[in-house]
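Model: Ready when you are.
Researcher: Fold this.
Model:
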Amino acid sequence: MSLVEKALEKAKLGSGQDRRDSHVEALPTSIQPATPLRSELRLEFDRERLKAEGMLPPDEDRQQIADQFRVIKRRLLKQSTDGLSDSRGNSQFIMVASALPSDGKTFSCVNLALGLASERDVEVILIDGDIAKPHISRTLGIQDAPGLLDLLRDPQRTIDSVLHATDLPGLAVMGAGKWSENASELIASERLRSVLAEIASRDKRRVVLMDSPPTLATPDARMMAQRMGQVVLVVRSGVTPQQAVLDTVEALKEGSAKISVIMNQVTTSVPFNYLYGYGYGAGYGSSYGKAP
């Protein structure tokens, strides 16, 4: 067993996950539609610009990548649905993380958001939590619009005032907002917990997907993880150092979130249950899948 596998096994046991999680189960049919999203802003989800920025695969690989993310999203939804009775109420909050920049974290986050939003009974809020380098916000042209940090900074500001409804049914976006020197303190504040609690109180079936900063580059990701019910760690196959993965898993274990792994840019045939639950095989070319 490699160092990476040992670290992931340790994280799995520490988060209370069962070994049966290594296979993909069908989503329960009892899930009910989420209540309609409310927002005061509108946004066109520009697929062409996202593709040009490396956040979406080229057309010739779109179906293959969509199929791979379909496998991943079913597990996330299953865990979210299983956690509806969780007293913490945070199973619907999913953070997409990486150890280092350029592991494919933002690419994975955007594609997961699109996949989740395609479900008939699910609505998704995609939050750009990479507050120092808000790649999603810049690409979608909302870098100057009020966002997460503004919401945390001003207790009088409402969630609806920073939420952008998109032209894609079931998907809304919250930008990073205006950066300030106390941005890290805002992320660590109880205000983030209360904002997430308010979202959960509206509808526990709504999924919140947060793109985070690289875990080893800033403490912000570790603070965010403590508010999440699930963390998806993106590891770039053959590039991300094993020690970086070990250190990241250890840091993320400070919270109680279930930790899962996506292996990005795998160059050999890898089964979907590789590294306990998630993985996708060859098909990630050098021009995409490496967004921060």
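Researcher: Now this one.
Model:
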Amino acid sequence: MNIVTTLIAVALLFAALPACTSSFAATVADDMSAAQLLAASQDAAQQAQAAAGRKPKADKKDWASVGREYAERCIALTPDNAECYYWRAVNIGLYHQIKVLGYQKGIKQMIADCDKVIALGRETYDNAGAYRIPGEIYTQLPETTGHPDGITRDLEKGEQLLRHAITLAPGYPENRLALAQNLFMQDRFDEAFDELMLAKEQAPKFRIDSSYGDWQKSIASLMKKLGKKK
């Protein structure tokens, strides 16, 4: 996830904040422009991602919840702003990495938001994130769900989406890494290895990406799994 630089005013606002809650977001957002709301949503996603692995886990959930609120206010002000929909999807995903309850509703919203980004003509935004996110969703979901209309794992659909993301942004390692994970789950180990090697080769070019550390861990983990299949 490539987090863009936030507005200085918003960054200072967060730096001065001892504990960020959704009620705080609702209070401040009334006086913020769409650009500030978007920047705040992006910054909240970055804060949520940085909080991963730290305790309490509520920190990540709270930041993601705040980021979603900012994105939704941005959508209310500028309903044709694709970036607002995209960052709502990102924050919802981060939120449900901690809070599983209601994840099916969240997943449906994420997919709808990504579809909206594409419909608004921003399919290349964040290195084809509107294809990468649902591609990862269909790859990582459980195979079954207790919801009668729930969304479940669909590796073929996930592969199609991830290949489209690669077509649009072939040089972005997260697209390759996600496809490698998808192919591994399909027992297509040689193809998975080839994509993983490309991701590993591309990753150093994105050292400043907020996800770089996670990529390195995922590459090493998948490499180990593939080694057992060779």
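Researcher: Key takeaway?
Model: The mean pLDDT is 87.
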